[in-house]
Amino acid sequence: MLKALLVLISFFLLINHPVTDLPDSKLAADVRAAVWPRLEKELNNGGFKAGSPIYIRIFKEEHILEIWVKKDSTYSLFKTYPVCYFSGGFGTKTRINDGKSPEGFYYITPWQLNPVSHYHLAINIGYPNQLEKSKGYTGTDIMIHGHCASIGCYAMTDPLIEEIYTVVYKSLAAGQTAIPLHIFPFKLNATNMKLCAASDYFSFWNNMKAGYDLFESRRIPPVVSVVNKQYAFK
User: Which residues pair with 122 in a beta bridge?
Assistant: First the structure.
């Protein structure tokens, strides 16, 4: 009982106070000093408040990474970045060394930042997530990072990861405890789902579609859980 109470108190303190001890390095600090003034101006020009909660989506087929920022009660698109490279085509990662880049629903917490990456700067996506662990999927250290080469990660090039990393850092530093990151094979609309109906991944993508549709209709990232080894949303 006491342990549970202490955990609850710790969580309350975490969600109500900015994080001040994020992983950092001279490189990351120098990058922030160089790119944040421009990004802050872009946010202000778009009617966004710097440090607001953010949400990230990746689409494999379109080779894009989107950053959405909370404005009032819903999220609006801030910037879209081209994904330079990912490996393995459509379908999610299931085992170590399979060469696949994951698809699914993840969260980025402060301690998933890697400011000393061999790939300039990097953000661990949180693979394997709860669903993937329940299915026995293997593999670790799957990142969004710099450069334009990768096996299993999402390579963005150095200039673009500097922007993405900085926006993520600033939101976490302002108090967002977990940034939703949703990775899709393509836009899960009715037309694309019909085209992939014969795919071995169709059941998995159809499960993901429920979460995709919720955001499309509400412009609020859904709360994601796992029930009977499937994603559940509300």
Answer: 114, 145
- One-letter-per-residue 3-state SS of the chain: CHHHHHHHHHHHHHHHCCCCCCCCCHHHHHHHHHHHHHHHHHHHHCCCCCCCCEEEEEECCCCEEEEEEEECCEEEEEEEEECCECCCCCCCCCCCCCCCCCCEEEEECHHHEECCCCCCCEEECCCCCHHHHHCCCCCCCCEEECCCCCCCCEECCHHHHHHHHHHHHHHHHCCCCCEEEEEECCCCCHHHHHHCCCCCCHHHHHHHHHHHHHHHHHCCCCCEEEECCEEEEC
Quote the Cα angle for 131-4-137, to 5°.
15
Name the token pair of 43: 């946010």
Predicted confidence (pLDDT) per residue in 173-193, tens digit: 999 999 999 999 999 999 999
> Cis (ω within 30 of 0) for the bond into 18?
no
Q: What digits encode the pLDDT tens for the residues 205-232?
A: 999 999 999 999 999 999 999 999 999 9
Specify whether the CB–CB gap between 120 and 146 falls below 8 A.
Answer: yes
Catalytic residues: 145, 153
Going along the chain from its start, the domains and CATH numbers come out as 18-233 (2.40.440.10)
